[in-house]
Amino acid sequence: MNILITGGAGFIGINLAISFADKGATVSILDNFITSSKNRITKILTRYNLNLIEADLTLGIPDEIREKTFEQIYHLACPTGVNNLIRLSEEMLVTCAIGTKNILDLAKEQKAKFLLASSSEVYGDPEIFPQKETYSGNVDCRGIRSPYEEGKRFAESLVTMYCRKYGLDGKIVRIFNTYGPNMSESDNRVIPKLLRFSMANLPLTVEGKGLQRRTFLYIDDLITGIKLIMNSDNGIPVFNLGSEQDISILELAQSILYLTNSLSTIEFTDRPDHDHKARMPDLKNVYNLGWQPSVNLKEGLTRTINHIKNNSSY
Ligand SMILES: NC(=O)c1ccc[n+]([C@@H]2O[C@H](COP(=O)([O-])OP(=O)(O)OC[C@H]3O[C@@H](n4cnc5c(N)ncnc54)[C@H](O)[C@@H]3O)[C@@H](O)[C@H]2O)c1
Question: What is the mean pLDDT of the chain?
Fold first, then answer.
């Protein structure tokens, strides 16, 4: 099978590429390395024989991609990171809009199955728990998080339009926090950041009192879910994918200290105004496909820590 993964050099993309290559698929990844690093994946590219096309999706589809025919296209390209919400705000919006349109046109031409990596951020600061896929969310279109939140919402709207108007076989996955091996060294999301500091015996920073609760899914479970959703045929176009096991950020920091055998202390700082209190996925749709997470947080953190120790990469 011929697979294309946009944003394939990033954390989720490279793990997805490895899992396909392991099963004998031919995998191309398209990335401009805006939130990932080429150095970090060089060995992986060779080991798994992945075809890298270095390009910015917003500038069009390179000839090298057009010359191939893909059965499945996974569209993951999007700058990520709360710390990038202002610095890469324009790139977030433009990639979600123009980048998504460019890759949708390719999927339409090639009649490829298509999957968009959307985000739980489409729910904004939710007023309903858990969030079902039918919940339309609570997002401020001018808020500080809007380049990412509204970018993903617009990308979802584009995919939906291509399905309705052009008969595209497209799926949307709203990903909730995911973690695991191959996260980038500069990834400032909570788990990689806590791991980085804890393993270096530096103080861990926890915002507020650390009582805000979050859920975390291990990457292998996410990938199993993404593939099931891409191949599903039950007429449902949009799926939440995440974990229902929530944990406070303080408890998470304490677990990480324990599992890394760290000498670090925990320091408390102010919480940013735009930080959401909590989110919780309603997972009935993906459970109905037969999906179940199989790696609990302790096991997933242990696997991630071992991977970092063996590869000196986050
Ligand atoms: N990791 C999570 O917990 C999580 C949660 C919700 C949604 N998602 C979504 O899943 C996808 C993958 O996330 P990730 O965690 O691997 O993030 P990541 O930042 O590691 O990967 C995103 C990749 O997209 C690439 N990219 C960005 N703009 C591009 C462009 N214009 N052209 C080509 N490449 C471009 C980046 O360089 C990067 O390699 C993203 O769309 C993200 O929004 C991830």
Answer: 96
Assessment of whether the complete model's pTM goes beyond 0.90: yes
Relative to beta strand 113-119, strand 72-75 is: parallel
Q: Find the 76 Cα to ligand 1 centroid distance in Å.
A: 5
The verdict on whether omega for the bond into residue 130 sits within 30 degrees of 0, i.e. cis, is yes
Q: Which domain holds residue 148?
A: 2-179+218-243+281-294
Q: Is the CB of 84 under 6 A from ligand 1?
A: no
Confidence of residue 314 (pLDDT cuts 50, 70, 90): very low
- Helix then strand count (H, E) for the chain reads 11, 13
| CATH number of domain containing 116 | 3.40.50.720
Q: Which of 74, 148, 179, 314 is catalytic?
A: 148
Let me know: does 77 contact 99? Beta carbons within 8 Å: yes
- Mutation test of ligand 1: which of 37, 54, 80, 184 has the most ligand atoms closer than 8 Å to its C-beta? 80
From the CA of 23, how far away is ligand 1's center (Å)?
Answer: 23
pLDDT tens-digit profile of 40-99?
999 999 999 999 999 999 999 999 999 999 999 999 999 999 899 999 999 999 999 999
Percent of the chain with pLDDT over 70: 99
